[in-house]
TrEMBL record:
Pathway: Nucleotide-sugar biosynthesis; UDP-alpha-D-glucuronate biosynthesis; UDP-alpha-D-glucuronate from UDP-alpha-D-glucose: step 1/1. The gene is ugd. Gene3D superfamilies: Cytochrome c1, transmembrane anchor, C-terminal (1.20.5.100), NAD(P)-binding Rossmann-like Domain (3.40.50.720). The keyword Oxidoreductase applies. One of its GO terms (molecular function) is UDP-glucose 6-dehydrogenase activity. Keywords: NAD, Oxidoreductase. SUPFAM superfamilies: 6-phosphogluconate dehydrogenase C-terminal domain-like, NAD(P)-binding Rossmann-fold domains, UDP-glucose/GDP-mannose dehydrogenase C-terminal domain. The active site is at 269 (nucleophile). One of its GO terms (biological process) is UDP-glucuronate biosynthetic process. This is UDP-glucose 6-dehydrogenase. Residues 323-425 form the UDP-glucose/GDP-mannose dehydrogenase C-terminal domain. Belongs to the UDP-glucose/GDP-mannose dehydrogenase family. It holds the Pfam family UDPG_MGDP_dh_C.
Length: 449
């Protein structure tokens, strides 16, 4: 089976490599010359564990190819995926669909035989139908179907999420006369290996599949925001947020995941998708106040975390040196999009702090986004050397393994603000730190000098 994947970005590359691994031939079309050159040389332009090997194996097996020619890729393809970017439009917060429609038009112009055109990018409700209308306008002669197949991949775990998904959602045009059977049959064939492992594959309407993606991400963003607010409350009443997360998470109706408190959610999906859902709902005349509030709480949380660091340093950071561990929006990625570190570091630099930062993967991506004066360090211990205070912003595993005794020796001051709860309060206090974390009771520690 032949498929085309338009867009060799995160979604296109991971999905393309995984479909190839399933045994399908995939032609990925990437128009950015630098990115294409990198892919052709076997260099993977994103950080995703296991992806380099998956790509290399499938290229070697002849199932995965890279090119910049849509016409070539589309010839003979039974499924054509659109996996181009849908950035948030400046000004109104809507998803910018320029690239989706440009790709659609190009595909339509060069399609010869029947194919199902599938949107894989996260697109507003109604886009699948627009894509269908556009193809019909450009090529009234063509026999085709459209489908919506949103991805639910987490960065850092994308291959596992693709190969062993909780579910796959495929929307087709249920209003089509005679049904979209051909499209459904092609999609079933593409995902055949998942039937073998009994992963649920749901066929829905186009609109349902499109909205399901926003609903899933917004629900998870709301769950994170909920536990963040519970953590704040825990600090006021002397309760422990981790015990609460466990206590409520063991109720299957709630579930244990996504109940880890932190400095607010970031990344390429949650901030964009919550905002998009707010707009979709407002435009449809059915506003989603829960999500509006989630967006608002999460935005203000980042500044509040910066204030919290300043307060932990005694009310002012002017003239102080602060070490920062972790910059990316979460561990196991080099992605800095909407990372909490951006507003937090700008605030601290603006308040007169000198910043020494380390991140295991994100330092290159971080530099253009963070204040110019940030000093980038070789490793975590280097970032802690001589600092008055140390702040944890991303829960990379290697930070958990750091020796508190060694940190104590290297640091000048004794303040630690752990916004991801990577360490145990008691252990850190026993080592003489003024240790603050999120939503955990304050245990008696050394008296601030
Ligand atoms: C998310 C969805 O999980 C995925 O299904 C979708 O396809 C894309 O968006 P991703 O953005 O890679 O994936 O990251 P995710 O692991 O979901 O984390 C999102 C943000 O929430 C991160 O900033 C993370 O730090 C934060 N988070 C997550 C928490 O603060 N606490 C948690 O318990 C979980």
């Amino acid at each position: 089976m032949q498929t085309a994947m338009i867009g060799g970005g995160y979604v296109g590359l991971v999905s393309g490599a995984c479909f190839a691994e399933f045994g399908t031939n995939v032609a990925i079309v990437e128009t950015d010359p630098d990115r294409l050159a990198a892919l052709r040389e076997g260099r993977i332009p994103i950080y995703e564990p296991g992806l380099d090997k998956l790509v290399a194996d499938n290229v070697a097996a002849g199932r995965l190819t890279f090119g910049d020619n849509i016409e070539q890729a589309v010839q003979g393809a039974e499924a054509i995926f659109i996996a181009v970017g849908t950035p948030t439009r400046r000004g109104d917060g809507h998803a910018d669909l320029r690239y989706v429609y440009a790709a659609t038009e190009q595909i339509a112009k060069c399609m010869k035989d029947y194919a199902v055109v599938v949107t894989k990018s996260t697109v507003p409700v109604g886009t699948g139908r627009q894509v269908s209308d556009l193809i019909r306008r450009v090529r009234p002669d063509l026999d085709f179907d459209v489908a919506s197949n949103p991805e639910f991949l987490r960065e850092g775990n994308a291959i596992g999420d693709f190969m062993r998904p909780d579910r796959v959602i495929i929307g087709t045009d249920t209003t089509k006369e005679g049904g979209a059977h051909r499209a459904m049959e092609i999609m079933r064939r593409l995902y055949r290996p998942l039937y073998l492992i009994e992963a649920p594959i749901l066929f829905t309407s186009l609109e349902t599949a499109e909205l399901a993606k926003y609903a899933a991400n917004s629900f998870l963003a709301m769950k994170v925001t909920f536990i963040n607010e519970i953590a704040d409350l825990c600090e006021k009443v002397g309760a422990d947020v981790h015990d609460i997360a466990r206590g409520i998470g063991l109720d299957n109706r709630i579930g244990r995941k996504f109940l880890h408190p932190g400095p607010g959610f970031g990344g390429s999906c949650f901030p964009k998708d919550t905002l998009a859902l707010v707009h979709i709902a407002q435009n449809a005349g059915s506003p989603m106040r829960l999500i509006e509030t989630t967006v608002d709480i999460n935005d203000t949380r980042k500044t509040r975390m910066a204030h919290r660091i300043v307060a932990a340093c005694g009310g002012s950071v002017a003239g102080l040196t602060i070490g920062v561990l972790g910059l990316t929006f979460k561990p196991e990625t080099d992605d800095m999009r909407a990372a909490s570190s951006i507003p937090i570091l700008h605030h601290l630099a603006g308040a007169g702090a000198t910043l020494r930062a380390f991140d295991p993967a994100g330092m290159e991506a971080a530099q253009p986004l963070l204040p110019e004066e940030v000093v980038y360090c070789h490793d975590a211990l280097d970032a802690a050397t001589g600092v008055d205070a140390l702040v944890v912003l991303t829960e990379w595993n290697e930070f958990r393994a750091l020796s508190p005794a060694r940190l104590r020796e290297l640091m000048k001051g004794d303040v630690i603000v752990d916004l991801r709860n990577v360490w145990e309060p008691k252990a850190m206090r026993d080592h003489g730190f003024q240790y603050e974390s999120i939503g955990r009771p304050l245990i008696e520690g050394p008296v601030r000098k």
